[in-house]
Amino acid sequence: MTPVEAAGPDAILKIRDLRLHFPVKAGLLKKTVGYVKAVDGISFDVYAGETVGLVGESGSGKTTIGRCIVRLYKPTTGSMHFRTGAGLVDIAQLDKRELQPIRRDIQMLFQDPNSSLNARMRVGDIIAEPLEIHAIGTADERRARVEDLLEHVGLGAEMYNRYPHQLSGGQRQRVGVARALSIEPRLVICDEPVSALDVSVQAQVLNLLADLQEELGLTYVFIAHDLSVVEYISDRVMVMYLGKLMETAPTRKIFERPAHPYTEALLNSIPKRVRGGHRKRFVLTGDIPSPVNPPAGCVFHTRCQYAKDICKTETPPLRTLPKDPYTSVACHLVDELSLSPYYTAAERADLEPDRA
Amino acid sequence: MDTVLEVSNLKTYFYIEQGVVRAVDGVSFTLQAGKTLGIVGESGCGKSVTSRTIMRLLSPSLARIVDGSIKYYPADGPPVELTQVDPYGDRIRDIRGNEIAMIFQEPMTSLNPVYTIGQQIMEAILLHQDVSKDEARARAIDVLRLVGIPLPEQRVDQYPHEFSGGMRQRAMIAMALSCNPRILIADEPTTALDVTIEAQILELIQQIQQDNDMALIMITHDLNVIGEVADHVIVMYLGQVVESAPVDDIFDQPKHPYTQGLLNSLPMIGRGDRLEPITGSVPGPHERPRGCPFAPRCPQVMDRCRAENPPSFVLGPASDVACWLYEEAAEPSHDSS
Ligand SMILES: Nc1ncnc2c1ncn2[C@@H]1O[C@H](COP(=O)(O)OP(=O)(O)OP(=O)(O)O)[C@@H](O)[C@H]1O
Ligand SMILES: Nc1ncnc2c1ncn2[C@@H]1O[C@H](COP(=O)(O)OP(=O)(O)OP(=O)(O)O)[C@@H](O)[C@H]1O
Ligand code: SF4
Ligand SMILES: [Mg+2]
Ligand SMILES: [Mg+2]
Fold first, then answer.
1. Which domain holds residue A265?
2. Residues near ligand 2 with C-beta < 6 Å?
3. Which residues lie closer than 8 Å to A199 by C-beta, 6 or more apart?
4. B interface mutation test: which of A172, A194, A200 has the most B CBs within 10 A?
5. Residue A92 lies in a domain
6. pLDDT tens-place string over residues A56-76
7. Which residue, B27, A181, A35, A258, is CA-closest to A193?
8. pLDDT at A304
9. Tell me: the pLDDT tens digits for B28-77?
10. What residues of B are in contact with residue A281 (Cβ under 8 Å)?
11. Which residues pair with A47 in a beta bridge?
12. Which of A81, B30, B87, B211 has the highest Cβ tally under 10 A?
């Protein structure tokens, strides 16, 4: 594992061996009978100004990581060093009071624009609330700031007095964006921010997030299950499976030269058009195993078509590839496998001409 | 090619307190045996109401078929006009679940939590086929195996909550397929599922389609799924079909400004260009604009569009578009009803 110091100088977040195990309780006395290993030993860096996409099957632990970073959860073990004016601070174990100044810098944007906004509050007050919590500005300054934010996210100041139910889904998600940005965070955890939206509105919100990032120098951790959305918005992608990282690599590399069998399976599961007929799908069999009793060895071995004996007993560590320092992979067979990309060369040539 | 279903100018309206909801407002298509029709459009455009109207699942006290026809062509015997059958009568019960089956958007709302998966599949079989209970149970186990449920002999006696989301969806498919339907209507069969499970389900549906020469209506808001499975596509907007064309034409040379806008809004892997979203959002059911339903969001809108709703112009043997931009280019219509 990379020591904290070895990471690049501009990493604003360095996560090492993060674990969050939820107790499973049973019986009258609510005895702990096991643990859901939602996040099970994860290490990665986030660099200033980048968007890192976090993908993986339902239940793989994406939201849990996000909630650890914003400290809605306290990790079971591990460190999360966040860069502040005073250098790197491990925010994993800070208490409520110590966290207060850091909460301003890290915000979370939630999936469901309907349930994440307080229905009884006016839009303007929803956006102003974080400013009030952090006692920023006078009432007049706050109002001016909210009006400015409303303009910024394309809603217009006249929306100030509306209630959430008077807005469309896309408008509600814009309110969520304005609220998350009101206190000028540096890092925003976006948890499926466009999943509930229609494609035309989804595209509007994606462009808005990209524009705000450029303008304000934001850093995003972008959680999504839709890989084409992740491909569009992310500079780097991290692929999770059952609480562990399987692969991290620059976005193009992931799609053109996947290095982990699970990444290959994900890519080849994405529906895609092949001109003049149907393609034979590559299908991953079975369901994702339970995170209470994850398989021994490589957690993916029960569904991996390449698995060998070693995969069933030894857990492959996440290793940086010697020939490619930007790619890390957790697979015993990384050197011997040659995996299929999203598009084969022939498919690309066939589709490319009319991408004018 | 055998036509199995022909829908023309179908209109289904809801009459509710706040007024009339023109949920389906002029839908036409033809479905052929062994082929897949894709129905695509944003939330609320009338995809599910179209399929529920075909299945006659909507209560007449709530929704009224105000115009149009749905002709079903059985394997033998004369065509059946589904708009005219009694929605609670024997004829539709013979057809529904037997000759035309449906997979619903949310498996949990259509599986009954108090019966085992096996009981629910057996019920469908016993309703339509003259077999004994033992034979029905054997058939239920067979279809569960067919859809890839492991240990079907044991799983058949489990309840829906004991299945994962993907397994429930497969159980729904098992139920829909238990009587070898000639037409399968799949309403967002994979929307709530992970891509790996989605791929399993789509593979399964297409496998069965090929084996049985089954006609498939695939309803989804996901253009990537449409691109992968459909032969022919209809694009819906506010209850109307705005464009109807073979799948490659929809993607390579979309005609309607809405279809073009949808494609420009869609992140496509490897493309990289900035998305160009359609401005605004779909109006609510009671804010239906005058004239062309897409006029308020259309980048090419003309005065006429705001006044008159364009008819469907015929651009080729299997291509229609409802947009004034194509009036000049149009051929005389397929039929002049
Ligand atoms: N508060 C909790 N208590 C107990 N278990 C939990 C809790 N939150 C999540 N889990 C479990 O932890 C695992 C990871 O959940 P998480 O929500 O992080 O997954 P996810 O990758 O975000 O999935 P999805 O794509 O469905 O949102 C799952 O098995 C989930 O059931
Ligand atoms: N029972 C009902 N009463 C009144 N209006 C209804 C009813 N059911 C549907 N509608 C309305 O009919 C229109 C079409 O709904 P429908 O469910 O067919 O949309 P859809 O295209 O399937 O959308 P989605 O992609 O969200 O599933 C919507 O405006 C909807 O609000
Ligand atoms: S370690 Fe083995 S089981 Fe895991 S992905 Fe690699 S080959 Fe497959
Ligand atoms: Mg989640
Ligand atoms: Mg629907």
1. 4-105+185-354
2. B 14, 16, 21, 23, 41, 43-49, 62, 221, 285
3. B42, B221, B223, B262, B265, B266
4. A200
5. yes
6. 988 899 999 999 999 999 999
7. A181
8. 95
9. 999 999 999 999 998 889 999 999 999 999 999 889 999 999 999 999 88
10. 199, 202-203
11. A11
12. A81
* Amino acid identity at A49: G
Question: Which atom of ligand 1 lies at the shortest distance from residue A66's CA?
Answer: 18
Question: Domain span at residue B132?
Answer: 111-180
Nearest CA in chain A to B271: A355
**A193 CA to centre of ligand 5 in angstroms:** 21
- Domain-ending residue, one of B180, B208, B237: B180
Tell me how many degrees the CA angle A156-A162-A167 measures, rounded to the nearest 5.
Answer: 80
Is residue B243 within 8 A of residue B310, CB to CB? The reply is no
ipTM score: 0.85
Residue nearest atom 25 in ligand 1 by C-alpha distance: A58
Of the partner residues A168, A207, A355, the one whose CB lies closest to the CB of residue B275: A207
Q: How far is A246 from chain B (nearest CA, A)?
A: 16
Q: Give bridge partners of residue B6 from the DSSP assignment.
A: B30, B71
Residue B274 lies in a domain: yes
Three-class SS state of A136: coil
Predicted local distance difference test score (pLDDT) of residue B189: 86
Inter-chain touch A170–B281, beta carbons under 8 Å: yes
Instruction: Give the C-alpha separation, B177 to B193, whole Å.
Output: 20
Report which of residues B139 and A350 the model is more confident about. B139
Q: Is residue A161 part of a domain?
A: no
Of all residues in chain B, the percent with pLDDT exceeding 90 is 60
B60 alpha carbon to ligand 4 midpoint, in Å?
40
The DSSP 8-state label assigned to residue B246 in this structure reads: E
CA count, 13 A, side-chain hemisphere, B29: 27
- Residue B260, Cα to own-chain centre: how many angstroms? 21
Describe the crossing of helices B195-212 and B165-177 by its angle, rounded to 10 degrees. 10
Report CA(B164)–ligand 1 centroid distance (Å): 14
Does some domain include residue A66?
yes
**Predicted confidence (pLDDT) per residue in A304-340, tens digit:** 999 999 999 999 999 999 988 899 999 999 999 999 8
- Please tell me which residue, A153 or B313, carries the higher pLDDT value: B313
Residue B187 lies in a domain: no
pTM: 0.89
Structural domain contains residue B309? yes
A284–B196: do the CB atoms touch at under 8 Å? yes
CB contact under 8 A, B274 and A169: no
The answer to the question of residue A180 being in a domain is no
Kindly report the CATH number assigned to the domain that includes residue A43. 3.40.50.300
- Closest to A182 measured CA to CA, from A125, A221, A121: A125
Task: Tell me the average pLDDT across A184-190.
Answer: 94
User: Rounded distance, CA A213 to CA A51, Å?
Assistant: 9
The CA distance from B97 to B55, in Å, is 9
Do B199 and A271 count as a contact with CB atoms less than 8 A apart? yes
Quote the pLDDT of residue B175: 87
CA distance B141 to B103: 19
Are B322 and B247 contacting, i.e. CB atoms less than 8 angstroms apart?
no
Query: What domain count does chain B have?
Result: 2
- Domains: count for chain A: 1
C-alpha A64 to ligand 1 mean position (Å): 6
Last residue of a domain, one of B156, B180, B204: B180
- Asked if residue B299 belongs to a domain, the reply is yes
